[in-house]
Amino acid sequence: MLHMPKIMKDILSRVGYGGTKEMEDDVQNLVEILRAQLTNKRYLIIIDDLWSTRDWHTIECAFVENNNGSRVITTTRIQDVAIACCYPSQGHVFQMQLLNELHSSTLFFKRLFGTQDGCPEQLRKISNDMLRKCKGVPLAITSIASLLANQSMHVETWEKIRNSMGSGLDTNPTMEWMSHVLSLSYNDLSHELKTCLLYLGVYPEDHAIGKFDLVRKWIAEGFVRERHGLDLEEAAENCFNELINRSMIKPFFNAHGEVQGCQVHDLMLDLIISKCKKENFMTIIDRNFAMIGALQVRRISHQFHNRDIALVIERVTQSQVRSCKFFSAADCMPLLSKFELLRVLDMDGPGSYVRPEYMCLDLTAINHLFLLRYLKVSYFRLVLPKKFGKLKHLTTLDIESTILCPWDQFSDFTSLSSLRHLILPSQFGDVVRINGLSKLCNLRTLINFRIRPSLIRTSLMTAPPSTHFWSNFIRRPQHLQRLRLGRHIPKVPNCIVHAHRLAYLEGLLVQELRSDGIQVLAQLPCLIYLDLGAITIPEKNIIIHPNTFPSLKHFIFNVSCELSFLTFEPSAMPRLQILRIDLDGHEESTMQLQEDSPVGGIENLASLEKIFQED
Fold it and tell me: Could you tell me which residue ranges the NB-ARC domain spans (predicted)?
């Protein structure tokens, strides 16, 4: 069953309606807003993977029949749902056909060899045998091809896989045989990859799974180990990429073409849940209060919000639980003190944003969970302990989508010596409320970092470099890799040059950008992503010199003032792939380059793939 408020909000956001995060989850109200938004418009809307006629009858109420040539396309695996989606005398059910022999072989060989003609002759007959067994089913073809891509090119190996495929779709029902094919790919995984894949069973069907959240949970669970010179984060990302390469998960991308997360095919999720149950890897509590898994559980996924679910939770042996994920949790929260071995705790509130009247989630007793490594809370008003005295192993604290109670009081981080990732609330105030931040020597990610302007001004302009705030902070967390600022600062701090491992710098908005500030940033050896904004540029021009920004791949530059020119000299930013320039404040009379653009030297960016310029 679809989560209807989310579907409606997704459609609204795609037809240009802003502010959907703050909207109530009232389906009828969302339908009326969408109808108003579509009035007098010509639209094309695609609804993917419908499973019930009831869902369709709810969705269709939002579509206005305005005779403007609009179209609605739905996809489903159920014939009755397809028929229900057709308007009388207007709709048409299109039965998707299986791939023919040519398209099947093209998909298969391109996945394996990059070209249809790349198959060695000795493997051609075996390949054709396997293709015949797949009977044109795309998922079967890509699954087998992905499995073969990780094998040696020996005839014996390929024959073994062909023989293990069984008789194929000729004698087995589609779903049963597909499960068998997917099991072949699963069985070929290493123990580490199998464990990482099974963990995806914590998420419901069609859920968008964030990459960073997932890999941090893998690490917290102890699924991934450092190896071959890779640290934990790099090793976990390698596992994530390997599952993509093997077609076990499907990636999705952000607006800049970067992998943001993944989704799991329904059939693959069915296989995962089956394996989880068989191996007692995870217990899933669904909307029917069915418990998929044993009562002696290691991991729990609560996928439906209801007060009565607390009674279901009481049935499990909570003292053995290592990981707990609550979807739409509120008044069904169990006593956390009973989860003595908990490593991962991820809790979503009842909505898709935080409202001031929401109940407060009191986590002041969380210090008893001394093994806790990962804590994420979303869509709650939140009470944290004043001190995290016993959470010596906590590596991730993500409370971005929360409101703190009280808002002007924050915790002492001094004891969180293992903390690697700190994501603060977006509405959070000044950094002076955070105690012990500069002592977090293992910190790699810091999001929504805000500093009181008076503190910055005093530190940067009057205090000695060895004692001012930035120098004290940047020198301590030597492993800092991601930093997102939440407030503008006077200038680029010189001491940021000490952040040798900094790879992502977001929201760096400076009151005054000068050439020396650019040079400071240009020296960062690992900087991959830079989001830089300038309110004033006294020199009226920016020059990116040769052999600077050696690792930068993505550069966003927002200018809110007059800019005469921005020039990229030869060999500048040698790895830059994406360039986005937003010129808000320039005047046409100041532009000195052709085509009314102050940007020059684009041809010197040898690796550039995409460029966006707005003015």
Answer: 6-113
- Nearest residue to 359 via CA among 386, 377, 385, 340: 377
**CA separation for the pair 561, 585 (Å, rounded):** 4
Which spans in 165-210 are helix H?
174-187, 191-198
pLDDT tens-digit map of 3-42: 677 788 888 888 777 666 666 777 888 888 888 888 888 8
Query: Could you give the 3-state DSSP secondary structure of residue 66?
Result: coil
Contact 359, 378 (CB under 8 A): no
Kindly state the DSSP code that residue 227 receives in the 8-state scheme. B
Crossing angle of helices 191-198 and 266-278, in 10° steps, is 110
Rounded-to-integer distance, Cα 332 and Cα 309, Å: 6
pLDDT tens-place string over residues 196-228: 999 999 998 888 999 999 999 999 999 998 887
Cα distance between residue 347 and residue 327, in whole Å: 6
The token duo for 211 is: 């990459």
The residue assigned the tokens 């200038």 is 491
Q: What angle do CA 231, 551, 420 make, to 5 degrees?
A: 35
Confidence of residue 615 (pLDDT cuts 50, 70, 90): low
pTM to 2 decimal places: 0.73
Q: How far apart are alpha carbons 66 and 58 in whole angstroms?
A: 19
Number of helices (H), then strands (E), belonging to the chain: the values are 17, 26
3-state secondary structure of 386: coil
User: Mapping DSSP to helix (H, G, I), strand (E, B) and coil, where does residue 21 land?
Assistant: helix
In sequence order, what E strands does 200-265 have?
Answer: 209-210, 250-253, 259-263
State the distance between the two ends of the chain, measured CA to CA, in whole angstroms. Answer: 44
Local structure of residue 597 (DSSP, 8 states): -
Could you tell me whether strands 396-398 and 421-423 are parallel, antiparallel, or unpaired per DSSP bridges?
A: parallel
Nearest to 460 by CA among 512, 503, 414: 512
Secondary structure E strands in 254-307 = 259-263, 283-285, 291-292, 299-302
Has residue 374 got a pLDDT over 90? yes
Q: Cβ distance 271 to 191 under 8 Å?
A: no
pLDDT at 118: 85
